[in-house]
């Protein structure tokens, strides 16, 4: 996923402050850099990330330097099922730190029997939760946001440890959840439909919105907190109960977040199953997709898996909310301000090591500025501070898994075979963990197969274009339609870009990167991105069902088409 992830300025000078720090809703800009630096200095984690494997023979959670994990309620083996009580009878898995591939702790996943029990308890909990007035539900969500605030630094540190993103992004991702909670509190007093005039005397039409019931939430590894937050906070104020299955490789984060929420529900004497958790793999995900008791399934992940999920849900005429892949483009015209283009392309392509769904993977440059922009980008890439995610000065961390490294290498080789030239990067870094060089490739055809393939890695394909018509078509020719951005000063071109013949994406930007959406707008994309919308605007409607209600408050009964029964 990709809405979270702010901080263009941080990819250059240490002294350069983030330009958008005061903008509401841009959560990750607002995390004070000093706070992260203070935590890094105050912890005992410095240096551990690059220690040889021979010195890391035990689980990290058992080492004194990682004792802070226990402040989140984590231990050597954790129960991965919550439905009012903790349990789990499935497979025990181990999660690893991407920065050194050392084991962190273990999680016992859900069995199919655990899933069945959890769904039953969740549906019972809904009977209680649906009776709570929406503003009161908003109060509970406010308390969840406050509880997350109290743990924001330590939970963000876990995100950095288990997912691999840099600390400021890990903390900022938790802030994203907090911000959505704040947003949802206000929304809890505003959701509802209009009262409509009736053509019949003594009648009124009301649009009534009710919760769908049980919302299943399947999230991906790249934003293991924020995406759940978008869904959970909005679904809760709408009157739904939630069943969460996070990515197996970030199971500790799922457990830690659920423990925070469970405490709030317990303190308010509400059923814990309102926010249930079933850690697991494909068996649990398949069960959720096929289960008619799951009234809405929100799925975030790859287009390939998302298609399978959509077909299973559609088979039972269920509802799904899909947030899938993106093959996003930045377009820079000859009149573009290059002082905006270069840092925007850098941030969008390299942030989170290229593992956002809004990552810029294609860079279309007018032929008159192509060489200059590529050269500037190469110099900017050389300044990126690579290192341990825990270091507050580091701006680029590892890929999430070894498999991702192999995918990166495969994509680089394929780009070469198709005629591309690697002008920067292209190799695995010689250091512990899953580090690869951020990479720029030029010389490919705009419709090269590899350029039309989303690779979750920091590979940027740069192309030359001649005119507006062709580059607008090139932007739209990929199967996904998530995010896009244009850089120009031409007002007419800007509005053509925003219009029906312009970008066909769900996020259409001007003079900013493809990453960094605000929570107040609906987030999502078109075509193979899935069509779902989360977070702001009227995305709350996805979590509710609508009824049109006609009320006769007169003593007459005018029938349709003027029919009269004598």
From TrEMBL:
User: What Pfam families does the record tag this protein with?
Assistant: Aldedh (PF00171)
Active-site residues are 323
| InterPro entries hit by this protein | Ald_DH/histidinol_DH, Ald_DH_C, Ald_DH_CS_GLU, Ald_DH_N, Aldehyde_DH_dom, ALDH7A1-like
Reaction(s) the record says it catalyses: hexanal + NAD(+) + H2O = hexanoate + NADH + 2 H(+); octanal + NAD(+) + H2O = octanoate + NADH + 2 H(+); betaine aldehyde + NAD(+) + H2O = glycine betaine + NADH + 2 H(+); (E)-4-hydroxynon-2-enal + NAD(+) + H2O = (E)-4-hydroxynon-2-enoate + NADH + 2 H(+)
Which Enzyme Commission numbers does its entry carry?
Answer: 1.2.1.3, 1.2.1.31, 1.2.1.8
Pathway membership: Amine and polyamine biosynthesis; betaine biosynthesis via choline pathway; betaine from betaine aldehyde: step 1/1
Q: Where in the cell is it found?
A: Cytoplasm, Cytosol; Mitochondrion; Nucleus
The alphabetical list of record keywords is: Acetylation, Cytoplasm, Mitochondrion, NAD, Nucleus, Oxidoreductase, Transit peptide
Aldehyde dehydrogenase domain: residues covered: 91-547
Superkingdom per UniProt: Eukaryota
Q: What cellular-component terms does GO give this entry?
A: cytosol; mitochondrion; nucleus
Task: Give GO terms: molecular function aspect only.
Answer: betaine-aldehyde dehydrogenase (NAD+) activity; L-aminoadipate-semialdehyde dehydrogenase [NAD(P)+] activity
Q: What PANTHER family does the record point to?
A: ALPHA-AMINOADIPIC SEMIALDEHYDE DEHYDROGENASE
The entry assigns this protein to a family as follows: Belongs to the aldehyde dehydrogenase family.
Q: Briefly state the protein's biological role.
A: Multifunctional enzyme mediating important protective effects. Metabolizes betaine aldehyde to betaine, an important cellular osmolyte and methyl donor. Protects cells from oxidative stress by metabolizing a number of lipid peroxidation-derived aldehydes. Involved in lysine catabolism.
Summarize subunit and interaction data from the UniProt record for this chain.
Answer: Homotetramer.
Its protein name is Alpha-aminoadipic semialdehyde dehydrogenase
Q: State the organism of origin.
A: Odobenus rosmarus divergens (Pacific walrus)
Q: What is the lineage of its organism?
A: Eukaryota, Metazoa, Chordata, Craniata, Vertebrata
